[in-house]
Design goal:
15 helices, alpha+beta, 4-stranded antiparallel β-sheet, 442 residues
Length: 442
């Protein structure tokens, strides 16, 4: 279908055909035209349909071409990952169609660093014009209008940009600069987004570490229910095997008499009491037992600790706390993941989460096993299954795996943070596992 008829028959030469996903399957070209026209006149809309159905059904995605490039980019800025249409769970996805990527601006735009602050746009144009036609040249300036010592140059073709990099990168040191000129492709929107997500992931990892390397009395409060349950399991008198696992992971430090001391911590209530740093006198024995882990307290020390606790509970709590943390803190995530992997092995088959909570992960490093993939995806939610696929002939990893959460929100959070995440030379590809009855959407 054609858009506004008052325009010329063909769109501008630099117009972009955009792919749009996450649109209701019930929508026709008419509703889509109403969605897109506020951003500019629409030349064409093609809904992708499943031809195996009779009549063919929409796959919930389409291509749209505006008459102008500007309208397409404005629509993308306003809709992509921002607007969620009625009845949809996820925001609209809008990006240039694959066929448009061959000459996209981001493939021809260069960042020029270590530029003399005395240079203006014309000087940069003269410097780079030998490599081909320059569409845009801009020096980055501060609020005061002064050059920041860097610029962007966009060529007509990618080949011109590549030639400029080869010839100009580190070819000279400009006046007032501490190192040679830098010439490279400018960061794309995807690069910026990925860097932002990597920073978010680093923060999440830090938060996870601070919850398990308890630096303060409130650290226990940050632990997830699984970790608390495992600590309870590790501290019960009937389950000292689990505690010896903690001891081994903590570097093999001798437990000594701490096994008996640990057996006094038999209730999750005691743990939660510790977490809130509100411990009554009836918990003094448990605190004294925990203090024994520190190794520096003898029997008399324990009695004194109990007496001191009666006078000032917080002092004893702090003392006891420092004792247990060195054994349990670093071990709990590992203990949890080992427990999950053992359950997974015992079950024999791949456990799946609900619809939308199961992920495929591609481009894993060859050496990654179930434990690695599990620990990498644990920060985003409760993992019910984590598996790296192994080649039965070679017994080597096939470099892809499967992670299931108990809810779709965690799966989406993992995709946002980990899709495109770089490990060594590889970038992970993380996407939802398609249900068996889904045909390929396009």
């Amino acid at each position: 279908m054609n858009g506004a008829l008052e325009h010329s028959d063909q769109p501008d030469p630099d117009a972009i055909k955009m792919f749009v996903g996450q649109i209701p399957r019930s929508w026709s070209e008419k509703e889509l035209k109403e969605l897109f026209e506020p951003y500019g006149a629409v030349y064409q809309i093609n809904i992708l349909r499943d031809r195996s159905q009779n009549p063919p059904q929409s796959k919930g995605c389409c291509f749209v071409t505006f008459y102008t490039r500007k309208a397409a980019l404005e629509a993308q800025n306003a809709l992509h990952n921002i607007k969620t249409l009625t009845g949809m769970h996820h925001p609209i996805q809008m990006k240039p169609a694959d066929s448009e990527k061959s000459n996209a601006v981001e493939d021809r735009k260069l960042f020029i660093g270590m530029v003399s602050k005395k240079c203006n746009e014309n000087d940069i144009r003269v410097m780079f014009s030998a490599f081909g036609q320059i569409e845009e040249c801009r020096i980055l300036r501060g609020p005061d209008g002064l050059s920041r010592g860097c610029a962007f140059v966009t060529f007509s073709t990618r080949a011109m940009a590549q030639n400029a990099i080869k010839a100009m990168h580190q070819s000279q040191t400009m006046e007032g600069c501490s190192s040679p000129i830098v010439v490279k492709f400018a960061d794309t929107q995807k690069d910026k987004e990925q860097r932002r997500l990597q920073q978010q992931l680093a923060q999440q990892m830090q938060q996870l570490n601070s919850a398990t390397t308890w630096g303060s009395l409130t650290g226990l409060g940050g632990l997830t229910p699984q970790y608390l349950a495992l600590l309870q399991q590790a501290t019960s008198s009937n389950n000292l095997g689990a505690f010896s696992g903690i001891q081994q992971m903590a570097g093999g430090a001798p437990i000594g008499s701490s096994a008996g001391a640990m057996s006094s911590l038999t209730s999750l209530g005691t743990l939660q009491g510790l977490a809130g740093a509100t411990v009554g006198l009836n918990n003094i024995n448990a605190l004294a037992g925990m203090a024994a882990l520190n190794g520096g307290l003898g029997g008399a020390g324990l009695a004194n600790g109990a007496a001191a606790a009666a006078a000032g509970t917080m002092d004893a709590l702090t003392q006891a706390y420092s004792g247990i943390q060195q054994y349990a803190a670093a071990a709990l995530p590992t203990l949890y993941s080992q427990s999950l992997l053992q359950q997974q092995g015992a079950a024999g088959s791949q456990k799946e989460g609900p619809e939308g909570a199961n992920l495929f992960i591609y481009h894993l490093p060859q050496e990654f096993g179930d434990q690695d993939i599990l620990q990498m995806f644990m920060p985003f939610g409760n993992v019910v299954s984590a598996k790296v696929f192994i080649d039965k002939q070679t017994n080597l990893s096939k470099c892809f795996g499967f992670v299931s959460y108990d809810n779709p929100v965690s799966a989406q959070a993992a995709i946002q943070a980990m899709n495109g995440f770089q490990i060594g030379m590889k970038r992970l590809k993380v996407q939802l596992k398609r249900s068996k009855n889904d045909s390929k959407p396009y």
